[in-house]
Write a structure and sequence with these properties.
By secondary structure, the protein is α+β, with helices and mostly antiparallel strands. It is built from 6 helices and 23 strands. The chain is 17% helix and 38% strand. Strands 6-5-8-9-3-10-11-12-13 form a 9-stranded mixed beta sheet. Strands 14-23-22-21-19 form a 5-stranded antiparallel beta sheet, with no helix packed on it. It has a 5-stranded antiparallel beta sheet with strand order 16-15-17-18-20, with no helix packed on it. A hairpin with a 5-residue loop joins strand 11 and strand 12. The N terminus is likely disordered.
Amino acid sequence: MKKIFMLAAALLCFSGAADAKWWIFGKTGGEIGLKYLYVNKVSADEAGAKMTVFRETLGPDGQVKITGKASVGKSAVGSVRISLDDKATWQDVKFSENGAFEYSFRPEPDKTYAMLIEITDTAGKTNKVDETRKEIVLSAENIQAKVREALDSLFDAYSRENLPKFMAGVGEDFAGDKGILERAVKRDFDALSNINMRYTINNVAAGGQGRVFVSITYNRMVLVNKTGATSTDSGFTEFVFHSAEGKLSLYSMKQPLMFGLSDAENVATGIVQGGGAGTLVLDDSGSLGTGQLVSIACSGTNAPAYKFSTGEKACGPNFDIWFYEAVNGIGYYNTFQAKEFTGPLSDLTSSEVRNLSGYAGGGNIAPAAVGNSYCFNQGADFYCVEPASLPATGSFSVTFRVKKF
């Protein structure tokens, strides 16, 4: 009886191993599709089936610029094509090794362009093309003045710490819950002083249900009451407004957040691709700057890598920094200067990070320690990372916080 039991157990183990091998070799390596898609710097993902772009926001070239990034799992991108006439004709689109692509065209007023994007990997597999369909139409309506009026009111009320005026510009259907936003903004006012923010409008587009999508570039400086330190950041971000009875009210915001920094997780409805590595965040104690949390997992022996300016992730040392498994080290390009600080990002001030004393080259920091901060300087730009976990033997993954100073 014992022998029969052992034989059955052996057969069960063999069967499990066989199933495991079938599963490993049967994987497709991930679906083919789009990681993101923007139309004139406005996210196309949330705009619905139809987007309206406005002539006054096109710029001097009068073109609509479509940017995106193809995703093909473990394979490589073979081709990217775009159709603007509902598949009647196709145009090849140039793309980079990491799948990023860009395409521009000059639209005619009141003409509808039925856009579809086809991604093909090197094995000949394609994405679900029909799911990328988006109608784009050019309008002569003047929308920018309305958007600027709404943004100016919000920015002015926030800078003056006028909570009632700020909340008057927020819609009752605010996507992140209006009550949560109000409490978060009040905590912002308790923690910050001398709030100084400037913005420029990148572009405006309209979607369904009265939604107006806005992309801005911003510069911000705040004084943290708890530490007395001044912190600055810059980047670009997105808002969605609801249009009703000729008035725009705030419907949603993405990270980097302009308002509600003390509860970013519940206030924001997504993250802008490449919006800025060092978005300002307030913790429960009123301290500023825990930074943005980033996780990268790689297979084989590929080192997790990261690009500061765009927030892009990669596997292999081909970006600004990368993380070694063998020595728990951080590699960086020789165009950078690096400096180590004992302690987390939240302890750092802009003045000490920007003090060039102690920065040195070499291209490698080894070993790096969880909980310490490592800052990198390239010209006028300063970025710091705080590892929360480092690659271990057999596990090529890393989690860290990053902030721009």
